[in-house]
Specification:
Structural class of chain A: alpha+beta
Oligomer: heterodimer
Protein name (chain B): Marine proteobacterial sortase target protein
Largest sheet of chain B: 8 strands, antiparallel
Radius of gyration of chain A: 25 Å
Number of strands of chain A: 8
Largest sheet of chain A: 8 strands, mixed, barrel
Helix content of chain B: 25-40%
Number of helices of chain A: 4
Helix content of chain A: 25-40%
InterPro entries (chain A): Sortase, Sortase_D_1, Sortase_dom-sf, Sortase_proteobact_type
Number of helices of chain B: 14
CATH superfamily of chain A: Sortase
Number of domains of chain A: 1
Pfam family, one (chain B): VIT
Number of domains of chain B: 4
Organism (chain B): Metarhizobium album
Strand content of chain B: 25-35%
Shape of chain B: globular
Keywords (chain B): Membrane, Transmembrane, Transmembrane helix
Strand order of the largest sheet of chain A: 1-2-3-4-7-8-6-5
Largest interface: A-B, 73 and 68 residues
CATH topology of chain A: Sortase, Chain: A
């Protein structure tokens, strides 16, 4: 009884029997896998945030009149606009063309839709867990600003949000008037991918009205 | 007392160990649960991607995505198109000596209840001279006229606006053409016939011919058509709702088996080689061969086995000892003589001389488009090439995707050690990322140090050529090549042959195509032969007595072992006698050959072949000359004279008759049609009513009626068709739907799973500690 105590604290991996070795090995594998998964998850988030810094730089250069530039040499897209929600203090650089790659780096303007502020409905989509995590906080009546690559800033006023299927969303890109639809996945805090989308419709505030309304708000 | 104490302690220990066992069991169960949930995640993810993929393929496409001929209708999705159900394709290739004339006939149907404008997109071999377009729309026949591109477009747009049927054939890339057809009525059937010719390719005594019929993978950001209501009183609305549970309907276009059946291709080659034939092979397709005489073969595809997923290739060799080493052909068109000559220089006399030292820069593309068999073939080819280097050679390996690695940072001796290191590196390459070819090319051409005395600098480029900045790359090769020769190796079943042929031409090297794993050894062996034998350089052709206005190609490319000089020329007047003199040099040894022009055999199509190569030469000079307009004018002049479609000329056809009144019923399938003289669409009229199940007939004709009907139905669902001919053109421009992309990342899920797994691992470790502790205490 006294002997093991004099040997001090038991070593974790010293003289394990077969069963224990198996458990230890399994634990190690599971632990590593877990580390990998968590790392991958955090990597996605970090990439999304870091990319925005580079994109902001690229967009500033574009505004300065250097033409559409690639944010980094191997990027397969260009910046299109900056979207911001002043009340809740969020903004992000919007990329042109929505695909898996652009969406990983920022909100994406669907290239098949008109430019924000042009006749029709422009659609901007982003991931619910990164760039559009704030979309749920936008209330009806909030202002949403879109600064386009040509330097013009368009102000939209948010309407009611709604939920619909991704392929039956009722967005009419050739609609009369100037609209903006912001889309992200729904439900917001689900970890599953699904067919449902949260769509926030907004319509353009005509420039003169916006100018008049700005000091008041 | 003591024993009691001991007993109690033992009991406690037993309890402890049993609770430890419980913890272990729980941990194990949790592990299983975690693994299970992981598996379902991946399966879910996989299922999700699979659904998207199938929907994409069965659904919408863009013209650039097409790699086989297809008629595209505007879809409800802006900028996207729906493939018209292809009823039948017939390809008739007539090879006559060095020239192949190809006639492609395809039959399509407008399955919708409205009027549409169709866009027919098709790839052709990159040296093809397209000169004929015929079309049958319903019961109308239209033949194309050659016009300058802008003028042709205007004629077409005017006709379209008037509601007339019209067709416009334009060249998008030298190997991609589009043919637009305006005002196709509901249910109407269209037959398109295109004719082109090309020179038979020859190398190392082997003659070959390719016909592209590949559907390349399409990169589409998941478009599906949805139901959208028109608003704003545009006068027409699309009433069709999207097909319910679309993802459950088996997408017939995706399945290669069904693909072959619903798009049956019949292909026949009438091979008149002009010399006694030896082996005739079709490496990718099963064919039936008949042998009318020693110089002729009739080749037909076995109807049941036509996977339309790779190019058709036919190769032939002369009977032993009968391989022609020279040929001279002529055609007289509009008072001018056109010549085509080929000479294979004798096997190099330098065989006994010590081979020149080589400095080889290997450049391998490991971008995402190469993934799958392509990268495997590229790795195998490159490993073979590296192991084939001689001890005195020097080499380097550069790989690129959107990044690049210069493996040795400069040329190194081809020692066994270096070769092994390079091969190990190449074997470990995986395909991923974008294609940024220019930096790699620059590194290969500029950064490898000066060429050693008496050495041959060679750049071997392995890629599928999936790039868009061809001009920039040609400019780089042309301007910075120095003494280097650029060899391109095309990998995969459908590489961008235009880019690779041109790049090799600018680089004064050759283009090798590797289409499958089992071609690697043979084709690379052929290339090694060329690499190791000094090229025949300074090739020039002159006409003794007769003056040649124009000899193509200009300048003459270098030759490699086994390759013939192939030139075409325009002579100022017909029936000129005289001699054609071709000179060149192999190393220090001059070579010359003379041919009498009056010995030339008459062959059709040489004038067009010349014109096509002349246009190529002019296009190539565009990368050097700073006057694009002058070049455009020259190209236009040549193309107009020879009735060829080019970058600046198009074929346009307008129907003179007024469009059928919209209320009149269509009767096209019931009325037997009389075909005008010289029109042979019969081949694609195997089945008059393909939608009805045909009771008998060959396998081609007995299309799976249900499947075809389904395809037609699905296509009709996705099409944006207009109620009248006039609105069809409006609709082609206008569409209203949009689909939202997937906007959830797996980040949260992965973090959750990751944390859970780490927790489980921690629990297991904790339990182990407990267990050890209890064992130690137990003694």
């Amino acid at each position: 009884m006294a002997m093991p105590q004099t040997e001090g604290r038991p070593m974790l991996l010293g003289r394990l029997d077969r069963f224990e070795t198996l458990i230890a090995a399994t634990a190690a594998v599971i632990g590593l896998c877990g580390l990998f998964f968590a790392g991958h998850g955090f990597y996605i988030k970090a990439k999304a945030q870091l990319a925005q810094v580079l994109l902001a730089r690229s967009f500033a250069a574009e505004l300065a009149g250097e033409g559409p530039s690639r944010p980094w040499p191997w990027a397969d897209f260009t910046t299109a606009a900056r979207i911001s929600a002043p009340r809740i203090g969020h903004s992000a650089i919007v990329l042109a063309g929505a695909n898996g790659e652009t969406l990983a780096f920022g909100p994406a303007w669907l290239a098949t839709t008109p430019q924000p502020g042009d006749e029709g409905t422009a659609v901007i989509a982003a991931h619910r867990d990164t760039h559009f995590s704030w979309l749920k906080d936008v209330r009806p009546g909030d202002r949403i600003d879109v600064e386009r690559a040509d330097g013009r800033t368009m102000s939209f006023v948010a309407g009611q949000g709604r939920v619909s299927r991704w392929d039956e969303n009722g967005i009419d890109i050739a609609a009369h008037g100037k609209h903006l639809a912001l889309a992200t996945c729904w439900p917001f805090d689900s970890t599953e991918r699904g067919p449902l989308r949260y769509i926030l419709d907004a319509r353009l505030v005509e420039p003169e009205k916006a100018a008049a309304g700005l000091p008041a708000s | 007392m003591f024993t009691n104490n001991e007993n109690a302690a033992r009991r406690i220990r037993a309890q402890r160990s049993s609770s430890a066992l419980w913890i272990a069991m729980t941990a194990l169960l949790a592990t299983f649960a975690a693994t299970g949930s992981l598996l379902t995640t991946t399966q879910l993810a996989r299922a999700e991607t699979a659904t998207t993929a199938t929907v994409e393929l069965s659904g919408l496409v863009r013209p650039n995505d097409m790699n086989s001929g297809a008629l595209l209708f505007p879809s409800k999705e802006l900028g996207y198109f729906v493939e018209a159900p292809r009823l039948k394709t017939d390809v008739q290739i007539d090879v006559s000596g060095p020239i192949a004339r190809v006639k492609v006939t395809q039959r399509f149907q407008n399955p919708s209840k409205g009027w549409v404008e169709g866009t027919y997109v098709f790839p052709l071999p990159d040296d093809s001279a397209v000169d004929e377009l015929r079309m049958q729309i319903g019961d109308r026949f239209i033949e194309g006229q050659i016009k300058p591109r802008e003028e042709a477009r205007q004629i077409y747009e005017d006709a379209k606006a008037d509601g007339k049927k019209a067709a416009l054939l334009e060249q998008q890339r030298p190997n991609i053409f589009t043919n637009q057809v305006a005002n196709i009525g509901p249910g109407e059937t269209i037959v398109v016939q295109i004719e082109y010719q090309q020179a038979v390719h020859q190398s190392g005594g082997e003659f070959s011919l390719r016909f592209p019929m590949v559907v390349a993978p399409r990169y589409n950001p998941a478009p599906i058509v949805q139901s959208v209501e028109f608003n704003g009183g545009t006068g027409f609305a699309v009433t069709n709702d999207p097909v319910e549970n679309r993802d459950k309907i088996e997408p017939p276009v995706l399945d290669p088996e069904k693909n072959a059946k619903i798009n049956p291709v019949s292909l026949t080659v009438n091979l008149k080689a002009g010399f006694p034939l030896g082996e005739v092979k079709s490496p990718f397709h099963d064919v039936t061969l008949t042998e009318p005489d020693a110089q002729t073969r009739l080749i037909a595809l076995k109807a049941s086995a036509v996977p339309a997923d790779r190019d058709f290739e036919l190769t032939w060799k002369a009977a032993a000892g009968k391989t022609p080493t020279a040929g001279l052909f002529r055609e007289t068109v509009a008072g001018r003589d056109y010549l085509m000559a080929f000479v294979t220089p004798p096997a190099t006399q330098q065989d006994n001389a010590a081979p020149a030292k080589r400095e080889v820069v290997f450049v391998i593309d490991n971008s995402g488009s190469m993934s799958g068999p392509s990268i495997e073939q590229a790795r195998a080819s490159l490993a073979l090439a590296i192991s084939n280097l001689k001890a005195g050679d020097r080499f380097n390996v550069i790989r690129f995707d959107d990044t690049m690695t210069d493996f040795f940072q400069g040329l190194v001796p081809a020692s066994a050690d270096n070769r092994e290191r390079a091969i190990a590196y190449v074997r470990g390459l995986t395909a991923d990322g974008g294609t940024e070819m220019l930096p790699a090319l620059q590194a290969a051409l500029r950064n490898q140090g000066p060429v050693a005395q008496g050495a041959l600098r060679q750049v071997v480029f392995l890629t599928d050529g999936a790039i868009g900045n061809e001009g920039q790359l040609f400019g780089e090769i042309d301007g910075n090549r120095g003494d280097a020769r650029v060899f391109t190796v095309g990998i995969g079943s459908a590489p961008n042959t235009h880019f690779m042929t041109k790049a090799a031409e600018f680089g004064r090297g050759t283009f090798t195509h590797i289409g499958s794993e089992d071609q690697v050894a043979a084709r690379m062996g052929e290339l090694f032969g060329k690499l190791e034998h000094p090229a025949m350089t300074d090739i020039a052709a002159t006409f003794d007595q007769a003056k040649a206005d124009n000899i193509t190609p200009n300048p003459m490319p270098d030759l490699y072992a086994g390759e013939p000089v192939v030139l075409t020329a325009e002579l100022p007047q017909a029936s000129s006698a005289g001699k054609l003199l071709i000179t060149g040099r192999t190393g220090d040894q001059p070579w010359r050959v003379e041919m009498s022009i009056d010995q030339a055999a008459a062959r059709k199509g040489i004038a067009k072949l010349w014109a096509r190569r002349k246009i190529d030469d002019l296009e190539a000079s565009g990368y050097r000359v700073n006057d694009p307009q002058a070049i455009d004018r020259q190209i236009e002049a040549v193309a107009m004279t020879h009735h060829l479609v080019s970058r600046v000329t198009s074929l346009v056809a307008v129907d003179v008759t007024a469009t059928r009144p919209k209320n009149e019923p269509l009767t096209d399938a019931d009325v037997p049609l009389n075909l005008p003289e010289g029109w042979d669409f019969e081949k694609v009229y195997g089945e008059q009513k393909p939608i009805l199940p045909s009771p008998t007939g060959d396998r081609d004709a007995s299309l799976p009626a249900g499947t075809l009907q389904q395809v037609a139905m699905e296509t009709a669902e996705m099409m944006a068709a207009a109620p009248t001919a006039k609105t069809a053109s409006l609709l082609a421009k206008r569409s209203v739907g949009v689909n939202l992309p997937q906007t959830a990342t797996p980040a949260d899920r992965h973090i959750l799973i990751g944390l859970m797994m780490m927790l489980i691992a921690l629990a297991a470790v904790f339990w182990l500690r407990l267990r050890r502790a209890s064992i130690f205490r137990r003694g």
